[in-house]
Amino acid sequence: MTSPLISPTSEGRWTPRLWGTLLVLCAAMFLDALDVSMVGVALPSIGADLGLSTSALQWIVSGYILGYGGLLLLGGRAADLLGRRQVFLVALGVFALASLLGGLVDSGPLLIASRFIKGLSAAFTAPAGLSIITTTFPEGPLRNRALSIYTTCAATGFSMGLVLSGLLTEASWRLTMLLPAPIALIALVAGLKLLPRSEPEKDHNGYDVPGAVLGTASMLLLVFTVVQAPEVGWASARTLLSFLAVAALLTSFVLVERRSAGPLIRLGVLRSGSQIRAQLGAMAFFGSYVGFQFLATLYMQSLLGWSALHTALAFLPAGALVAVSSTKVGAIVDRFGTQRLIAGGFALMVLGYALFLRVDLDPVYAAVILPSMLLIGAACALVFPSLNIQATNGVDDHEQGMVSGLLNTSVQVGGAIFLAVVTAVVTAGAPSDPTPQAVLDSYRPGFLVATGIAVAGLLITLTGLRPRRRSKSAEPSVVVARSIPEEAERVTVGD
C-alpha cells in the first residue's frame, strides 16, 4: 500500500518525497546501464594490465549478463514475497560492494566474479525498483509519466557510460569499475530515508523452492549456452546438449508452476495478449538494438579508425534525444496508447537500421550516420517506456515484482540470443582476404538480421492494434477516461 507521505496530492502533483523516491529508483536503473556500457571500452586496457586472453575478457561482459539474466525471475518474485524496499536496498548495497571489489582486484577470475555478483544484484534491484514505482504511482497518467522518466534513465546512463568510459580509461580502467560504487552508496543512503516501507506478502502459499531452482537453473543455462555458442559452434555437441537440457529444465519448470500453490510465475498472467506482446516486443527491441550497436561500434572503430570517445559521441545523439523526451512520453502514451507508440517506435527503428545500410568506408556523419541515430533514439524514447507500461498495466500489486522480473528477463535473454545470432552471421561470412571493403560487406548481413528482428517486433505489435472507437456523445470532460490506454488489456486474475 502506498504511504500517504509520498502519495500524489489530490491535484495530481508530486510531493518532494515522491520525487525523491523516483530519483533513488532512477539512480539504480542509471547505474545498471552505465556499468554495462563503460566496461566495453575498458576491456583492452584490462587485458593488457591483468594479462587476460580474449576469451577471458569476454567473461567480464558475459559474467554480468549471466548473473543478471539468469536470476531476474527469482529477483522479481523475491520482491513480492520478501518486501520490495528490503530487496531493493540489500541488492543495491551488494552492487556497491561488488563495484568496489572490481576496481581493486588484481586477478582476472576475481574481476569476473565481481561482475557476476553485480549482475546478480541488478537482477534484484531492477524488478524491485520497477514494482516500487508501479505500486506507488496509480495506474494512468501519473504512472505513465513516472515510468517514462524511469526508463529514460537507462538510455541516459548507457550514453553517459560510453562517453565517461573513453575519458576514464585514459587515466585507469579501474576508475570505470569504481565509479558506480559512490553513486550506489549515495542512492542507498537516500533510499533508507525515502523509499516507502513495504511489508512482505503474508497471504502467499509458501515459497516455490522447486520453481525457483528450476527457473533460475534454466535461465542461467540458457544465457550461458547462447553466450558460448559463437565460440564453441552452434552445431557442436556441447551447444546442442545444452539447449536440450534447457528445454528439459523449462518443461519441468512449467509442470511445477502449474501445480504449485504459490508459483514463481503465475502462468495465467500470460493469458493476456498485451502481456505476451510486451514480452516478445521487449526481446525483439533490445535484441535488435544490441546487435546493431555491436556491429556499428566495430564498423566505427575497426574500419573507420575512430577512437572510443569519437565512437561514443557518434551514438550520443540517440541517447540525448531519449533524455530530452523523457517528460513528454507519458502524456503521449495517455493520448495514443501503448500499442500505437510501440508500433510507431518499431517502424522508426526499422527505418533507422535501413538507412544505416548506406554506410561506406568514407561516410559523411551528418548525412549518413546521424539520421539513423536520431531515428533510433526516437524509437527508444517511444518503445521502452511503452513496453514497461503495457506489461505492468492491469496487474495486481502483489504480482508487480513477478511481472517486472519477467519483462526484464525478456529484455536480457532477447539481447543475449539475438546478439549471438548477429555475431554468428557475421563470423560465418568473414572474408578470407580481410580488406576493409570485404570486412564491411561481411557486416551487412548482420545489419540486415538486426533489421529483420525489428521488423518481427513491428509485426508482433501490429497484431494488437484495434481501430479507435469514437462515441457520438463524448464530451471534452470525458478525457479523464483515457488515463489508461485503450489497448491495455486487463490481466486475468485467476489461473
From TrEMBL:
InterPro entries: MFS, MFS_dom, MFS_trans_sf, Sugar_transporter_CS. It comes from the Bacteria. Keywords: Antibiotic resistance, Cell membrane, Membrane, Transmembrane, Transmembrane helix, Transport. It is a multi-pass membrane protein. One of its GO terms (cellular component) is plasma membrane. The chain crosses the membrane at residues 21-44, 56-75, 87-105, 117-137, 149-169, 175-195, 207-227, 239-256, 276-296, 308-329, 341-359, 365-384, 405-426, 446-465. Pfam families: MFS_1. The keyword Protein biosynthesis does not apply. It is found in: Cell membrane. Gene3D superfamilies: MFS general substrate transporter like domains, Multidrug resistance protein D. One of its GO terms (biological process) is response to antibiotic. Residues 21-469 form the Major facilitator superfamily (MFS) profile domain. GO terms for molecular function: transmembrane transporter activity. The keyword Iron does not apply. PANTHER family: BLR6921 PROTEIN (PTHR42718:SF46), MAJOR FACILITATOR SUPERFAMILY MULTIDRUG TRANSPORTER MFSC (PTHR42718). This is MFS family permease. It comes from Streptomyces luteogriseus. The lineage of its organism: Bacteria, Bacillati, Actinomycetota, Actinomycetes, Kitasatosporales.
